[in-house]
Amino acid sequence: MEALFSAAVGELVSRCLSFLISRYLYTLELSKVEILRKLERALLRIAITVEEAGGRLITNKAMLQQLKMLRQEMHKGYYVLDKFRYLDQEEGKVSGRRSCSSLALPSTSNPGKRFPSSATRRHGRKELEVTLDSVQNMVTDMYEFVAFLKNSPPMFCQPYSMYLLFERCMFGRQAEMERTIYFLLQREPPGDFTLGVLPIIGRGKVGKTTLVEHVCDDERVRHHFSQIVFFSGNKFVEEKLATLMDGGIIKHKSKTQNAGRMLVIVELDEDVEEGAWRRLLSASRSCLPSGSKIIVTSRSEKIMNFGTTQALRLNFLTREACWYFFKVLVFGSTYAEDQPKLASIAMAIFEEYYCHNDLLGDFTGSFANSKNIAALLRANASMQHWRRILACVRRNGHQNLLPCSADTNDVRVENGHYYISRISNISQYVQVDRHHRVVRLDDEEAPKITIDEVMYGRLTPKGKFEAVWWRSHLQPHYRYITTCEIHDSKCMDGREKSSRKRKSLS
């Protein structure tokens, strides 16, 4: 009798606990959904303000700084929102495929970096709460910004997403652009013959040249200066030119004289002796018309001493900003949430690629690579095609991750190569040289083959060949050329085995 009573009580307690746990989890899930809805509404308010600000001429430095903070918060918020809205779907599909198929591709990184697992759900909920709190605080703080924004004159412009697609604006650099333009348009006091110099510093492929190209393409700058002249390299500073009036490539020449003012762009490849720069600048000061300005760009910190104003430093965009940029490139003026299945695949592609961005991003930077992948997706808006791209990105990560280990004898590290899977034939890989050269559009010796043609199998050159990896849509339309070679997967497997054998013997 006691045993029966104990069993009944145990069953009752067990059912009560199961009921309470299920109710708690159900309430928790509802709460998470509500957090996502609140976050989406708050982000929409920030997005409206940011888009409105993008269509107005803002010259106030403090407002530009606050606008930059709004954009950063918007990018971060949308990244977190999309991660929980889309990647949960892809997590279930990937888990199902991996559990039921022995042919599933091996994981190339920590899955927790891509998909929120059950072990990290509580941490994910906390991340949602922190993000929502931060976004709501930003909404509260932007009331004064909105009030002052009404006093800024409007500019005629197309929707922001269309500008991105047609390369008419530089994503994520609006504050830097306005600061540069403000420096260029600022008039010197009467009788002041100081030659204004703005140094722009940043790592390779961070966007220094692209920023300058966009600034020079601005109508305000073109109207202000009669000529825009471009110098590249270091030799002209130390050897060739007596002044900045000699030589150079004329990028713009106005029909109206505009008081003869000149804008001189100097792009330095490496360190320059400060004494040589000072001598060139001193000689040029007496030759350049009053009101002329100079922009000098370099990777070196030493050019900070060349400026007459505080140097502008460019950093790579955050992961959240890169996702926002990639999403706009892929979906254009349409809303990603209207196509949730494609959006989930797009974010899985982005997350998979970004895990290895440090490896691949040194080639042309995240902008160029994001544009290339987005172009492949836009070419065919079908789930089958997008999943094929996702599979290729995963295979690329697997093939390029192993050489980053301690095995420094691996041929791929030694020769500076990485590998990308062909979309047309998954049994083949394209070996891509990490080093590249840049040519102008009018260079007749530049190759005509593009990397897209190689990836889709429209062309299968034999042996080593050169291909256009990316072409800039801004004048002078630079093309980035790299050396490629197509290999079969059997050859790749053989290299992996020999690499492992060398590692085991060492």
Helix content: 40-55%
Poorly predicted segments: 95-119, 360-364, 402-414
For the record, the count of structural domains works out to 3
Q: Briefly note the structural class of the backbone.
A: alpha/beta
How far from one another are the termini? 71 Å
Strand content: 5-15%
Mean of residue pLDDT?
Answer: 76
**Largest sheet composition:** 6 strands, mixed
Strand-and-helix sequence, N→C?
Answer: HHHHHHEHHEHEEHEEHHHHHHEEHEEH
Principal-axis shape equals: globular
The helix count comes to 18
What is the total tally of β strands?
10
Radius of gyration using CA atoms only = 28 Å
Annotation keywords:
506 residues; alpha/beta; Rossmann fold; 3 domains; 6-stranded mixed beta sheet; 4-stranded antiparallel beta sheet; 18 helices; globular
Could you describe the 3D structure shown?
With 506 residues, the protein is of the alpha/beta class. It folds into three domains: 20-161; 173-313, P-loop containing nucleotide triphosphate hydrolases (Rossmann fold); 319-505, no CATH class. Helix content is 52%, strand content 13%. The protein has 18 helices and ten strands. It has helices at 2-54, 61-100, 121-141, 143-149, 160-165, 174-185, 208-217, 219-224, 235-240, 274-285, 319-331, 340-354, 357-360, 365-378, 383-401, 411-414, 451-455, 489-505; strands spanning 196-201, 227-232, 249-253, 262-267, 293-298, 312-313, 417-421, 428-439, 465-471, 479-488. The strands form two sheets. It has a six-stranded mixed β-sheet with strand order 3-2-4-5-1-6, with helices on one face. A four-stranded antiparallel β-sheet has the order 7-8-10-9. Helix 1 packs across helix 2 (61-100), helix 11 crosses helix 12 (340-354) and helix 11 (319-331) runs parallel beside helix 14. The chain is globular. Residues 99-111 have a biased composition (Polar residues). InterPro entries: NB-ARC, P-loop_NTPase. GO terms for molecular function: ADP binding.
